[in-house]
Amino acid sequence: MEEQGGQAAFGWAARDDTGVLSPYSFSRRVPKDDDVTIKVLYCGICHTDLHIIKNDWGNAMYPVVPGHEIVGVVTGVGGGVTRFKAGDTVGVGYFVGSCRSCDSCGKGNENYCAGVVPTSNGVDHAHGGVPTKGGFSDVIVVNEHYVVRVPDGLALDRTAPLLCAGVTVYSPMMRHGLNEAGKHLGVVGLGGLGHVAVKFGKAFGMKVTVISTSASKRQEAIEHLGADEFLISRDPEQMKAATGTMDGIIDTVSAWHPITPLLALLKPLGQMVIVGGPSKPLELPAYAFVPGGKGVAGNSVGSVGDCQAMLEFAGKHGIGAEVEVIKMDYVNTAIERLEKNDVRYRFVIDVAGSLGSAA
Question: Which parts of the sequence belong to the Enoyl reductase (ER) domain (predicted)?
């Protein structure tokens, strides 16, 4: 079912589980009083997009227009909008709706609402139950509550991935006290999420150690991203020497991996936060965390408030993702490369520069 009557939109969509994207014309919904209409400038490509377009999770509603790391400019606002005006530079992250009435929403944790509406491939019950279509398109209409302001001075292409990857690591760092100068943070995996975690950790004044299976990433981690140390997780001697040295660990790896050796790196009462999503269950023996009073938590993106605070922090410290900017017609090649982790560290689509003439 396609909702008609709104602004004509043009993007790229997957039609089936091959995940191949191709040009797609559709209509956005008619804006309501509390809606913001946004011209999409840039949109990052996340691993979640890859899973959705290939129906890895069995919930794809084709045609799927992916994209939830959106930076754009406001082109119109409803009569009830108070926070934004035409011309404002804004962002839209992983979700564009929630129930606004549950305990999680009431506490400002909309990302944990049972009725959260993903920006792409979600069911938007508040607007006719149509599937949401994301930022691989020239325009999007979003309730102002789920829109964030992009601070002046941030490079817009490098800001787009912060709307998902950035807040996914920033939010748990704030919640678990892994934002205090002098503390020691371990970052497992140096990909789209991990490299941003390193940047946030250093901006907080922390000692940061990157933990990786790949020795080839040492120079990048230390010389380019500013990590203090690099630990090869497959090296028993290195791991033994680092036992009990870390206050917290952010684990960004999305493939199965042993976490017992990682827990050994924590000090007593240390905290590990898992932000990756391995499909195979992780192994967590009690002896790895009970004797030391260690914690293992999960985290799913962040709230709207978290996202705004994260952008303000990024603006103050000049933080942006390391990106490879592409045109829309390269997106299928980019998806293939993403499957092989062949990107340093996030693809970002120049949407306006690709689709502007068609908009």
Answer: 14-349
Please check whether residues 134 and 14 belong to one and the same domain. Answer: yes
Cα–Cα nearest to 52, from 94, 110, 90 = 94
What is the phi/psi pair of residue 172, to 5°? -70, -30
Taking the model in full, what pTM does it have?
0.95
Question: How do strand 184-188 and strand 323-326 relate by DSSP bridges?
Answer: unpaired
Q: Do 40 and 102 belong to one domain?
A: yes
Domains: count for the chain: 2
Decide: 62 and 28 in contact? Cβ < 8 Å.
no
Tens of pLDDT along 23-43?
A: 999 999 999 999 999 999 999
Distances (CA, A) of 47 to 51, 164, 231: 6, 11, 25
Residue 209 and residue 198 in one domain:
yes
Q: Can you tell me the distance from the alpha carbon of 156 to that of 163, in angstroms, rounded to the nearest whole number?
A: 11
pLDDT over 70 percentage in the chain: 97
Look at residue 220 in the predicted model and tell me its pLDDT: 94
Is 191 a member of any domain?
A: yes
